[in-house]
Design brief:
Beta-AFase-like (chains A, B), 6-hairpin_glycosidase_sf (chains A, B), Beta-AFase-like_GH127_cat (chains A, B), nine-stranded antiparallel sheet, six-stranded mixed sheet, alpha+beta, Non-reducing end beta-L-arabinofuranosidase (chains A, B), globular, Immunoglobulin-like, 21 strands, homodimer
């Protein structure tokens, strides 16, 4: 196995999660988020918009993104239904399918807005219209529906739509040389190709990736379509941002840093990485390496969040990561999970991708939804001063709620990947049962009993019908863990795969069952900022296991101003395990406690509190830290992730 | 003399500046800023808008603020003309006067927008209309014109307008209970009262201050007028910000902190302080103390700038002072100078007011205009990362250019105040000649030869026609100076007035001339942030004399990223005096050099430069610092005021 070996993603339907923590999060999506979102969509007119009955002058005028809201909800619903049959949710899902089918035009086109509101602008403003963005989300919903039901009832119409799109856009003579202003369709094409093997899908995705930002002799495509509409080209006062906002100022091969809108950029790169996995394009591969480093090494927050600049919903300069004004859109973290997941499959022995996937998932994504599943953050600054921030039930631009729902309900997809030589890459230590087909064609079953996410260690039981001696587990050594150790009841080989992973195999095993255990410990650890990140000069962040911790004022009522906290360099952190009762005492209500899987670990330390009133002496206090994703579930409060050192 | 003794401002026409530095700044206003602004106003239709010839459908539709742009230009022009006669500038000023006179309606009303664009909304939207804001600026222009010409040609019509306003707004039965959404008129009424003694002016100002934010039984005035227009009241989505944005959420007596739009808040408090000086209202006095402390101790940047929140153009929470995203509008610093100046006269022995006035003037105000006078900053962050910031020739909302012009051209007003008992308060050490009328009615002449602003020390020569034994100078001890020492050729008494000032008198003098000299030294000094200002944790700012210094990348081409600079705690700063040639070598062009009065002092120190590339060792370099107000005069570059300590 060399580092250039590829791996393929495990399919979601082959994984069943049993982790109490993750079942807590997923059941909350089912029982709270999906119904709450349906209600909001129903009330705002979104749910029924695909019936195409809106007329000018009526309320609830459809918006360009509305189809994608329904699509993401449907996608999440199908993931949920595959595990938790539910007749009424099933009926709603099929109603959504009917609506989408009903909205399809003769030529295959599906888009509410450009069918009923501005039909004359169909395909005329691809830089801003979100038509291809909605198409991508509809395709992902169709794929989820296909996987759940085995029926082509939605995937069929969507494939017709894709063929229509392919007839409109492409490198071939006579086709428009456009590409989406909001990327997303590329990744959905790759995912659908992974299931259906239809080369048209990959060709179209490859075209969108390669065409993006190109300067043809006739000009930039967005200029051409703007001119055709009689409006001035970007950028300029009142003309919109520069094309770097859409990652369309140059081609991917020419890009040296991620710029512009963070969600667009991450969807784009996830799609590009998927294309690269399938086409093995070397120039895209080099670009992906550069752009990964730009995003993750220089523009990522400590929580895995992305986007320093609210005005752009996007990236700022390198290492410019302000806390209070940071944007860190929930969707950007979700998109980073997708990007990291696709990158894993280009270089599965580089554990950085899984490390970042886990970081973003457990922190920047999870924080986007309340523990009770009913309210959502769109942007996620790392500090607040005046208690202004709380989650919202819904947003006018409602991308984040359904996006987080579809990711949480499909988290099983990120636990394993399948490499050549029967290598099973373990990205996440999450209790689950998975089915994996070996190179021999035989299917094995991997049960993982994990102590995660709160403690380190997992016991793997691998069952098959024959000899399991060829099976290898590539075990990732998580960030900041100690005492990483592998054991087995069989004799085994354990080989280092860099300093980030161990490859374990039981070559002489003759049983049809193999047990391999990995143990490791989590201790609270300090993270120091990059020296050019001046917003956090002389500060530390505290982490334990996959979680970044924070101070929330709710837990620290004696501290008038969280900014007065100073952490001594020799501070020791003690751990406190909270069970259901403990969480209740800490102020979390029943719904939140269940959403957490009834357990959490909080940290305590002695901190120095500055007294800014001249007449008072500094004091010491016992500071409570909670996992960052758990903040803002107990009413208005303040937050700090980075804490100044004493 | 007790600390409750009041003082009166010296009138601008009684002071003539001879400081090379200030003549450089003022001549630049005359020769560059006023012509450039006239040109912009002419081209954008502002200059001629008061001719009231705009019709719907024509270009250059007047905006609600346009009258104020002309008024501030005219005010500055009159200040300039009083010192530097100039026939063509005089003609333009009189043309503006003619236009304003011509725009006056039968009832006295003067407002372009509400005469030609939306006449049906006259006085109907005082929360947002800027009618009273424009009225205030027109009144200040009229006052400047009256002082310059001695003619009532503009002040007469404006007094008619004021009487009309007084007939519309006021506490009396039948009058509207409104007050301006953008304060300014209050201060102009006070200033006009100081000259004309017309009690109507003070009564109206007093009404505006006292009525503001009151909750009458019939409701909040802004709600009432919104309802009358048939629009929803503030706040709410699409309804505008909360009333705290206008400082109208409660009355001044109920306010505990400055909130909302910083320029509005400072104009308001300057007006309130002026009213308080004249009415001696104790509740307002207490409120002013509270609100001064809120603004200056908890919400002011190290440069004297105000406004952390761009979205509000206003105040954030206490000690929240981000560098890169700070707003620090030039106009807010100008308004702080006005507020501080009015506060001086409530408590002239409290030197904090003059200290803050000087800080804001030499830093947060001066930075608002290029050294060549031709371009302007609207907002003034204290750090930039990607070289995005440069001054603009003009703004759509063009409040700042003419505002800085009128302040710089009237800076003489801030040098002295006249207390009871022939006490002359010296606020600024600026070479000048002033006329002061003593309690005896006799007029004396004070010549000040100052080494400022680059070095400390001034020689005062006081000439009168009789015995000068009663004259006292209250000499402020500037921030961070050393070796403050008073000498005189006559025998003199020197008494401490707190630790911030010395009161000097030559009681036995019998001559008609007295010489008093004060000497002090400036050394580079470090300023440490408030501990709750976490944006600058473990950082220092460097100052010398009245100037805050900064690092600009232009002067430090070897430093790739200014964020890599670390200042050792034992760093020593050497001073380098730049003359005309030296400034040229430092990259300043001729116009900038002359705008500076041909001299500046820059600082050098040995700094540590972090190398973030793992393969390179940290280095030391000689760092150049320049006064903050001088930055951004040599093309695109980056800026940092606060520097991390090593």
């Amino acid at each position: 196995m060399t580092s250039s070996s590829l791996a393929r993603p495990i399919e979601l339907q082959d994984v069943s999660i049993s982790s109490k923590f993750w079942l807590g999060r997923i059941r909350t999506v089912k029982d709270a988020s999906l119904p709450a979102m349906y209600q909001q969509m129903k009330e705002t007119g979104r749910w029924d918009c695909l019936k195409l009955q809106w007329k000018p002058g009526q309320p609830n005028k459809p918006h360009q993104f509305w189809d994608s809201d329904i699509a993401k909800w449907l996608e999440a619903a199908c993931y949920i239904l595959a595990k938790f049959p539910d007749a009424s949710l099933h009926r709603l899902a099929e109603e959504a399918v009917d609506n989408i089918r009903g909205a399809q035009q003769e030529d295959g086109y599906i888009n509410t807005y450009y069918t009923v509101v501005e039909p004359e602008l169909k395909w005329a403003n691809i830089a801003w219209s979100h038509e291809l963005y909605c198409a991508g989300h509809l395709l992902e919903a169709a794929l989820a529906h296909y996987t759940y039901t085995g029926s082509n009832r939605l995937l069929g119409p969507l494939m017709k739509y894709v063929r229509y799109i392919d007839s409109v856009f492409g490198a071939e003579e006579g086709k428009k040389k456009g590409y989406p202003g909001h990327e997303e369709v590329e990744l959905s094409l790759v995912r659908t190709y992974d299931i259906t093997d239809d080369p048209l899908l990959l060709n179209l995705a490859d075209y969108f990736i390669k065409e993006r930002g190109s300067r043809r002799p006739e000009g930039h495509y967005y200029d051409i379509e703007a001119k055709a509409r009689g409006v001035p080209p970007q950028p300029g006062p009142g003309h919109g941002p520069p094309y770097s906002y859409h990652q369309a100022d140059r081609t991917i091969g020419e890009m040296t840093s991620v710029e512009g809108h963070a969600v667009r950029a991450m969807y784009w790169l996830a799609g590009a990485a998927g294309v690269c996995r399938l086409t093995k394009d070397k120039s895209i591969r080099r670009a992906l390496d550069r752009l990964w480093k730009s995003a993750v090494h220089r523009k990522m927050y400590v929580t895995g969040g992305l986007g320093a600049i609210p005005e752009l919903e996007g990236f700022g300069p390198d290492y410019y990561l302000p806390n209070e004004t940071g944007y860190l859109e929930t969707c950007a973290a979700i998109a980073l999970v997708f990007f990291a997941h696709q990158m894993i499959h280009l270089d599965p022995l580089n554990m950085e991708y899984a490390r970042v996937l886990e970081l973003a998932l457990y922190n920047a994504v999870l924080v986007g939804v309340a523990l009770d599943g009913k309210s959502f953050f769109y942007d996620n600054p790392l500090a607040t001063v005046d208690g202004y921030l709380s989650r919202s039930k819904w947003f006018e631009v409602a991308c984040c709620p359904a996006n987080v729902a579809r990711l949480l309900s499909s988290v099983g997809r990120y636990i394993y990947s399948i490499g050549s030589d029967d290598m099973i890459f373990v990205h996440l230590y999450v209790s689950s049962v998975a089915r994996v087909t070996l190179s021999t064609g035989e299917t094995i079953r991997i049960s993982q009993e994990s102590k995660g996410p709160w403690e380190g260690g997992s016991a793997f039981a691998i069952d098959g019908s024959t000899n399991l001696g060829s099976v290898k587990l590539c075990l990732r050594i998580p960030d900041g863990c100690t005492d990483f150790k592998v054991t087995s009841s069989s004799s085994f080989q354990c080989e280092s795969a860099g300093y980030q992973a161990r490859i374990v195999q039981c070559p002489f095993v003759t049983q049809k069952t193999v047990s391999i255990s990995v143990s490791f410990s989590f201790r609270p650890r300090s993270i120091h900022p990059h020296p050019l990140n001046l917003d956090n000069t002389h500060c530390v962040a505290i982490a334990r296991g996959p979680f970044i911790y924070c101070v929330e004022s709710t837990d620290n009522p004696d501290i008038t101003d969280l900014r007065a906290i100073r952490i001594p360099d020799n501070a020791e952190f003690s751990e406190e395990i909270l069970d259901e009762q403990g969480l209740g005492r800490q102020g979390f209500d029943q719904a939140c406690v269940h959403g957490l899987g009834d357990k959490a670990i909080i940290l305590k330390t002695k901190a120095h509190i500055l007294q800014t009133d001249r007449n008072e002496q500094d004091t010491n206090t016992v500071l409570t830290l909670i996992p960052y994703f758990m903040w803002a579930n107990r009413g208005k409060s303040n937050l700090r992730v980075w804490l100044p050192r004493l």
